Amino acid sequence: MSGPSTYVPQNPVLRWFESRLPIIGLVHSSFIVFPNPRNLNYFWTFGGILAFMLVSQIVTGVVLAMHYTPEATMAFDSVEHIMRDVNFGWLLRYVHSNGASMFFIAVYIHIARGMYYGSYKAPREILWILGVIIFLLMMATAFMGYVLPWGQMSFWGAKVITSLFSAIPVVGDSITIWLWGGYSVGNATLNRFFSLHYLLPFMILGVVVLHIWALHVPGSNNPVGVEVKSKKDTLPFHPYFTVKDGLGLVCFLIVYAYIVFFMPNYLGHADNYIPANPLQTPPHIVPEWYFLPYYAMLRAIPSKLGGVCALFGSILILAFLPWIDTSRVRSANFRPVYRVFLFVFFAVVVGLGYCGSQEPVGAIVTWSRVLTLYYFAFFPIIFVLGFFETPRKMPASITEAVLGRHAGSGAFAGAQAASGPSTEG
Amino acid sequence: MLITEPMMSAKSRLLSAALVFGLMAAAPALAQDAQTAAENPLPPMQSWSFAGPFGKYDTQQLQRGYQVYKTVCSNCHSMKDVAFRNLADPGGPEFSASQVKALAATYQITDGVDDSGNPAQRPGRPSDYFPSPFPNDAAARAANGGALPPDMSVLAKARSYERGGAWFVTEPFTQYQEEGPDYIHALLNGFEDKPPEGFKLPEGKYYNVYFPGHAISMPPPLSDGVVDYTDGSPKTVAQYSKDIAAFLQWAAEPKLDQRKQTGFNAVVFLIVFAGLLYYVKRKIWAGVKDASGTEGVGLAPATGPRPRV
Q1: Could you tell me if A212 and A31 are in contact, meaning their C-beta atoms sit under 8 angstroms apart?
Q2: Coil, strand, or helix at residue B307?
Q3: pLDDT confidence of residue A1
Q4: Is pLDDT above 80 for B191?
Q5: How confident is the model over A185-195, as pLDDT tens digits?
Q6: Which of residues 210-269 of A touch B (CB under 8 A)?
Q7: CA B115 – CA B110 distance, rounded (Å)
Q8: For residue B243, pLDDT beyond 60
Q9: Does the CB of A333 have a partner CB in chain B at under 8 Å?
Q10: Do A412 and B277 lie within an 8 Å CB cutoff?
């Protein structure tokens, strides 16, 4: 994807085809010979894992849609029909519903990796912004997907989230009614959410293609954050990274399969097995776990509009990271102060998630506010930090980072020790 | 080497930060727990045949549970998503096909219209779903003092309770997935004739230790001897409540046996596959970790990454 390919197929038929539509060459240059930094660690396998998850969700989702009925009085029972009467329907549904969770686990690790290693910095700003767009689309898709079983949490979750738009001054109420397709969450809402839930994954797919394209222009960042300087710094994508990504993916699938087969309802909420009832509010409305940090921020702010701004702002601000982070050093391995602030930031997001899962009373409210404050303070802090922080000495090249200063003079043992820790973070 | 030490210190700092935060968050929760634990005991955990990675339904228990459902629960509770044929499915009560046929025939099902255009009744078939005891929710409420007896199809998956503590951390390891049946079992054993001092029980309600708010509209449904077991099992509330809870778990998750068996195969396959891939990966990467390996990277393409702007 980074320019015309020099690939010439051996087979005459393929050569004929290639000279008319150079798609084999495109795949060849993007996924076979594509030069990747040789020091990528296992955090870099999550890109491939996410691509797998997207395809898996689309495939299981398309089959589920063949058996699902997007109608308010029938949706709940049609899901039970899938669970009971469709061949391996229980498997399809559990793979799909837990797939959403696994998708978010992978994307959070992927984002955290980008923040730790400064992958958003020049020349990868567009790549990063496309990632934020994918993340937003994922959130919308996951939210609408959770509405489809039409259980109590589906219904009331939809009600809470769509009502957020009513906080917008002047036009808020009109927008909410427009989203609902009526004066409350009902059949019209379910129907359009189903339609959009089917549409958005393909929009994600489109942005993912752009994301990979934007990745293949500058190439991958790497754990030391030093740009590729020579051929010695890279290895071809195949077989080195196909096998490494493959191993990462299979390990990820072990966790995924374990959840699907042995605890498929662990990440869900029991109330969603109660059919939606507009007249009965559940005692405790909570979104799916992956939205909990944002839910905590929403509730932390005493004003509704302020809460909604915090909710959306917390994600949108990520798009500006390339300009907020003023340091020219990419990898946090060489930024001792930034790294501490970043780890606290990660801990704060986890803490917000915990707060979001609890009822907003007493200490939980206080903690939500303190943590929300840090979440947003993190960005000005790192803006200022970039001017003052003294980075650690960086290796001159990727090869030096992998093999030690005296590459080629028997520094193998030292090289392993130096490259080992870079797989953590 | 130059990266190792700071990594360690950052890690320990992170850990201590997480610990401090965790303790502070837990402190108020613990205080609350102690206060309410006496009034709201957690349902005691039972030992279930279907728990754990190798769990399977106990066919005999499901048959007894069905008997309890038929004799007692079905008078008020519907089970709309379960069909008669399911009673013969593998991994269920596994009644014989002829038993299911005979059982279905004892029900009258409204289906289609007769020659004069009125709703027609016919004897049930195995493909029919369990008919509901009331024609609609309003009728059900009217007959039950305003309370709607919940449908039992997925009841065992629709009930949970706040356990407090760090269950979400331990659960992936314990695989505890039986909150629903534990709750149903506890509820059926949790009725008390007299509410505790100072508890105002509304008219027409019953006191139950495990029901949220304690005032439940359902009268104690089980009593010793009410269901006539023929397999020699004790005819006690303790036994009935376990059997019906197991039956409801089956009704809610009828493919559990298949799921856990398939899951074992899937996970073992993936672990073996990962092991093989690990060695393939090591073999492929063996040359390049070595300093001399850089020279050997003849596979690398001639074109480096394009110049960046």
Answers
A1: no
A2: coil
A3: 57
A4: yes
A5: 999 999 999 99
A6: 217-219, 227-228, 230-232, 234-236, 239-240, 243-244, 246-247, 250-251, 253-254, 257-266, 269
A7: 14
A8: yes
A9: yes
A10: no
